[in-house]
Specification:
CATH topology of the largest domain in chain A: Glutathione S-transferase Yfyf (Class Pi), Chain A, domain 2
CATH architecture of the largest domain in chain A: Up-down Bundle
Strand order of the largest sheet of chain A: 2-1-3-4
Oligomer: homodimer
Strand content of chain A: 5-15%
Structural class of chain A: alpha+beta
Largest sheet of chain A: 4 strands, mixed
Number of helices of chain A: 7
Largest interface: A-B, 36 and 37 residues
Helix content of chain A: 40-55%
């Protein structure tokens, strides 16, 4: 198997961190170009036109960072990063979905609707131009603020987002916060629990990949 | 266990259909009000303020329709609605995530930013007013159009969204399309594969719940 990757992008990073935490070694194929686009060759091969994508030896293409990670979890269960029993797995799944919709997608909305390099790329994965909507800037900032505060509350009495163990919910949260930094947005000063957690998970070797 | 439900809403419907397909019987607690809001009592109990939510007998609250469904899948594996082996499960997971982000969230964006009854409720789950953004109407329509066409293509040579079997990817796709109808949007005439599939899955008894 191999991973089609755009090394600087936030969604591929979710998978980089997952793979590092598992201690796996899966070949990467870089498909980003120096024009901040995916290569034409990749888009022809994979019209969904997003990264990361895992190609199996039989040619099956699996997209979506967390669908790939869950597939790898079935093959390599230790250490468990999706929870340990049905209830724990449900809590991890719930928090990972929340941070994806409330953090990752908000950070993406903010970046794509403000960055001059992404003019006409207001949404991912589209071949047609999608104009930026400046009115989304304020809303995306509000979304990010709600995300910061909700997750700060969640971390008030827990070491990790989904409880006692490091999981994929932490991976997506870290990637969402670091994606926010692309638009100079940082964790508010008064979100002390989230800041403590951020320092902890950022210090893990997996965060460096 | 019991499910906190807002019976008319699209995300709870994903779980209704899942539960019906599994043949389960789980008590429902209606928490929608006739003002098209969640009850104050529910929001006080569950500040995340979204539905559906599964409460376990030990008081654990699990949110997010598909996190709940996956939890139920672990308890009641037959018939399998999340795939049958790691690769098949990954393909189901990928398509379910796609339809959630490209269909459900697009339909939600369209509805919340146009419906007069949802003025100041541009996003779900917020206690503060979130003004509608009229510019999102056009973009959301484009998103829905891309969604219809992508899924029409996917269904050209397959009976169901993720392949040979009915799965949660079909459930979310059905709910996204029917959510689009809230804003008078229907499957384009030329999306014949998607229309054929829609008629098939809408005829299942589970679609009536």
């Amino acid at each position: 198997m191999k991973i089609y990757d755009w090394h600087i992008a936030p969604n591929p990073r979710r998978l980089h961190i997952y793979v590092a935490e598992k201690g796996l070694n899966i070949p990467l194929v870089e498909v980003g170009t120096d024009k901040l686009t995916l290569s034409d060759e990749y888009k022809a091969k994979y019209p969904h036109a997003m990264v990361p994508m895992l190609e199996l030896d039989d040619g099956t293409c699996i997209g979506e960072a967390m669908a790939i990670a869950r597939y790898l979890e079935a093959l390599y269960p230790d250490p468990p990063l999706f929870g340990t029993d049905p209830k724990d797995r449900a809590i991890v799944d719930m928090w990972e979905k929340r941070v994806n919709e409330e953090g990752m997608l908000a950070a993406s909305e903010l970046f794509r609707n403000t960055a001059p390099t992404f003019a006409d790329r207001g949404l991912p994965g589209s071949a047609e131009p999608i104009p930026q909507i400046p009115e989304l800037t304020k809303r995306a900032l509000e979304r990010m603020n709600r995300f910061f505060n909700k997750f700060d509350g969640q971390l008030a009495d827990k070491p990790f987002v989904a409880g006692e163990r490091y999981t994929v919910a932490d991976i997506t949260t870290l990637c969402a916060i670091d994606f926010g930094k692309w638009t100079d947005l940082d964790i508010p000063e008064d979100c002390k629990n989230l800041r403590r957690w951020y320092d902890d998970v950022s210090a893990r070797p997996s965060a460096k990949v």
